[in-house]
Amino acid sequence: MLSRAARKLASCPSASMGSVGIPRDQRLLGPLLEGPSTPVAYFFLKGRFAFGPSRLSLLRKNLPMNGTMLQSSTTTLWVNEIFYSIQGESTFAGKPCIFIRLAGCNLRCTYCDTTYAFSEGVRMGIEEILNQIRSYPCQLVEVTGGEPLLQHPVLLLLRRLCDLEYTVLLETSGALDIACVDPRVHRIMDLKCPSSGECHRNRFANLEHLTARDEVKFVIGTREDFEWAQSQLQGSWTQRVGAILFSPVFGVLEPAQLAAWILEKGLPVRLQIQLHKFIWGPNVRGV
Ligand code: SF4
């Protein structure tokens, strides 16, 4: 059964057979990439926009991990921005890093600081993306969003980056399946806390797939969030995962307050601040 958002799209006069063609040079993606209120997944395959559970399983079948169905020379992604900066989060914080921000997100977190990525993007070929990042003197790359896993061909981009011996980070909300991501990628996955408004979208099955290469991040805005995050620190994944990050919502919860709570409870987690916001300010894009 299609979600309300998918039904709305299906009833659009320009839609047919459950898919919508996207103008090749469309700069603003508008509602096509704006998040639905239900957990429908959006994927792009060879310029087509597909949705709904049946399409999803079809696309999965047609996109093996070895990428034989999709060629990097002909496959495209909607890219919001590519830039070179200092990594502000995760255990890689402080290192020079190339960021590839993909467009679109299926969530609407209350504290989101990249809302511009919901609907702004240009379509770029995977080889075009790789050529652009080769111009930076850096071997660390993060693919982020928005929600990068919404665009299924991102799996091919991640694999190509690994093949080129980049150290590859993937930032994901944790609401979509992470199992098919190349195992060489460092997955930095959120578990959404209550004040995000998207706690019900956490895909807890993802925890089974985490390894020592991966990191789990809790973005904490309130004491309730902190206590919820603390209550999640159980199960074998906490021993397997490379790091558990507690990050205060910038401008909402003081890092010193979160530090005090962590110390009070003696939690085996890492306090993380968004370093780039302290260096360049909270509203500067492309850093
Ligand atoms: S998942 Fe990330 S990009 Fe999407 S709404 Fe939440 S904070 Fe914003």
UniProtKB/TrEMBL annotation:
Q: Indicate which residues the UniProt annotation says bind substrate.
A: I86, Q87, G88, R101, T144
Q: Name the InterPro entries on file.
A: 7-CO-7-deazaguanine_synth-like, Aldolase_TIM, rSAM, rSAM_sf
* GO molecular function terms attached to this record: 4 iron, 4 sulfur cluster binding; carbon-nitrogen lyase activity; magnesium ion binding; S-adenosyl-L-methionine binding
As recorded in UniProt, its EC number(s) are: 4.3.99.3
Keyword 4Fe-4S applies: yes
Binding annotation for S-adenosyl-L-methionine: Y111, C112, D113, G146
Biological pathway: Purine metabolism; 7-cyano-7-deazaguanine biosynthesis
> Which amino acids does the record list as binding Mg(2+)?
T114
- Which Pfam families does this entry report, sorted A to Z? Radical_SAM
Concerning SUPFAM superfamilies, the annotation shows: Radical SAM enzymes
Q: Summarize where [4Fe-4S] cluster binds, as residue positions.
A: C105, C109, C112
Leading EC class:
lyase
The chemistry this enzyme catalyses reads: 6-carboxy-5,6,7,8-tetrahydropterin + H(+) = 7-carboxy-7-carbaguanine + NH4(+)
GO annotation terms (biological process): tRNA queuosine(34) biosynthetic process
Q: Which cofactor(s) does the record list?
A: S-adenosyl-L-methionine; [4Fe-4S] cluster; Mg(2+)
> What does the note accompanying the cofactor annotation read?
Binds 1 S-adenosyl-L-methionine per subunit.
Keyword field? 4Fe-4S, Iron, Iron-sulfur, Lyase, Magnesium, Metal-binding, Queuosine biosynthesis, S-adenosyl-L-methionine
The record's HAMAP family line, in alphabetical order, gives: QueE
Q: Which family does it belong to?
A: Belongs to the radical SAM superfamily. 7-carboxy-7-deazaguanine synthase family.
Q: How is the quaternary structure described?
A: Homodimer.
Protein name per UniProt: 7-carboxy-7-deazaguanine synthase
Task: Give the organism, scientific name.
Answer: Candidatus Methylacidithermus pantelleriae
